[in-house]
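REQUEST ID: PR-0412
SUBMITTED BY: lab tech R.K.
PRIORITY: routine
TASK: structure prediction, single protein chain
INPUT:
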Amino acid sequence: MPLYEHVMIARQDLSNTQAESLIEHFSTVLADNGGKVVENEYWGVKTMAYKINKNRKGHYAYLRSDAPAPAVQEMERLMRLHEDVMRVLTIKVDAHEDGPSVQMQKRDERDSRRERR
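STATUS: complete
OUTPUT:
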C-alpha cells in the first residue's frame, strides 16, 4: 500500500486532550477503510505565519500512514468538513523515515545534522 504523511492544524481554543482525540478519530477513519496509522505525533500549539479563520495559533498534529488511496481521500474529506480542523496537508512518500520527525527532535540534534553536510 502507498505511504503517506499528513499534517493537520486544529483550532487554538481546543484543549490538548481534544486535539489528541481528533488524531485518534481520524486514525480510526483510516483503519475503518483498510489503512493503518504507523505513527502519530502531537506537536502542540504553535504560532502560524498568518491568521487562518481569525486564529493566530493552532494545534499541530502529524500522522504517518500506510493506506489505500480511497481511505486517505475519505479521511481528508472528513478533515475538511470538521469544524475544528483548519488546514490539512497530505504527502505521498516512498518510505517513512525512522525516528521522530524534525519538529520533535531536539534543536542541538538538528544543528549537528547541518554541520555534517
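NOTES: The radius of gyration is 15 Å.
REVIEWED BY: pending
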